[in-house]
Amino acid sequence: MRARRLSVALVCLLAIGLAACQFTPSDREMVRSFIEEWARSKNMHPIKEDGSLSLQGIWNAGSRLVTGRSGDEEADAVLDAYEVVSNLHEADKLMDKGRQERDATAMDQAIQRRPGDWTYRVSRAALALEQGDWTAYEQQTASAAQTVGERNIDPLWYTDQNIRDLEPVQGKLAASGWPDKTQCVKLNQDLAAHYRRRHALTGSAADLAQAEAAESLVAACGE
Amino acid sequence: MGEQRRRNGCLWCGCLSAVGAIVVVLLAVGGVIAWYSNLPERLGVRTSPTQRLLSGPPDRQAAQQIMDDLAGAGMDTRGTWVYVLPVEGRPYRVAYAVLDAAEGFRFGRGGEGDVVLDYLVQLASGESIDALDIGRVGIDYRDEEGNPVIALTAPTAVVQAYARGEIPPETLMASLEGKLDFETLTGRIGE
Q1: Which is more confident, B114 or B9?
Q2: Chains A and B: how many Cβ contacts under 8 Å?
Q3: Are A166 and A194 in contact (CB under 8 A)?
C-alpha cells in the first residue's frame, strides 16, 4: 500500500506534475490510474509493480522530463499544439475584431501572430480594397495566393473565403454609390473571377449568374 | 628547490588538464543533451516541431463536424474545443481537442474501461474522421484552473484498431505519446 502510494506520487511528479492530483475528485482517480498504466506501458514508471525501484523507469521519465521530447517529431508537435492553438485563439479574436470593426491594425496584428494563415490575408486584402489601400491589397492578395499554391490548399476553400470576404465589401460600396472607379473595377473583377472559379469547381448556375452580374458592374463602373 | 618547483608545476598542469578535460566532456555532453532537448526552441534558436508542422490555418468546418460527431455519440461537449490542423508535408490532418475542466469539461463515467482511452476512441471513431483525412488525434486536458495536466496523442489508425478490438489496450497504451511538462511540475511544487 505504501509502495503504491509512493509510486502514484512519483508518477504524478515525474509524468505530469502534481496537477494530476488537484482536479475534481472523480476525475482525479480516473486520470491517476490512467497515468500509472500508461507510464508502465512506456517503461517510464519509477516503481515496478512489485514495489521495487525501476532504474530504467527513472531514467526514461527523467530524460523525457529534461529533453521534453518523445523522439517522434509529429507527436511532439501535437503534444505542444496548445502553443499554436492558444496563439490561434488570440489571433482569431484580433481578426474577428478587425473584420467586425473594419480595423486594419487589429488584422495586421492577427497576421503577425499567424503569418502562414492565408485566410487572414484574404480578409485583410478585402479590407484594403474597401479602404483603397492598393499597396496592402496587392501585397496581401499575392501572399495569400502564394501560400495557397505552396500548400496545395483546396481551391474551393480559397474561392469560398474570397467570396465570403468580398461580398460584404461589394454591398457596402454599392450602397454608397461606388465612390471610386478603381475600387469598383478591382472589386467586381475579383468577385467575377472567384464566382467563375467556383462555377468551374462546382458547376453551380448561381455562381455563373453572379459572375456575369459582377462583370456587368465592371463595365458600368464610373458611369 | 628548483626541482621541487618544477615537480609542483607539472602536478598543477596535470590537475588542470584533467579538470579541463572533464569540463570539456561535460560541456560536450550537456551541449548534445541541450541540442536534442527543446531548449533551442525556447531560446528561439530554431523553430519548434509545432511551429514547423502545425502552423497552417485550421479547418473550422471540419472541427465543427467532429464536435457534432462527439455530441451525436452522446458526449457532453462543454469545455471542449476541437481544432483540425493541417500537418506540413503530410497528406493528413490532426484533430486536436482541448478538454478544459475550467470551462465545464468532465470525462464521462458510463463505461467500464479507461475514460481517457474511451475519449480518444470517441474522437478517433467519429463518422467524419476518415472523410476528413484525420491521421492523428490528440487531447490536451486542463484542470479547473485551466492549467495543463496531460496531453496525449496517437495515430488515428491505431486508436481505431483498438476500437475494433484488433489490438489490446496495452498496444494502444504503448503507441500513445504524452507530454511531460517540467514547468507545470515545478510550478505546482512551488504553490
Answers
A1: B114
A2: 183
A3: yes
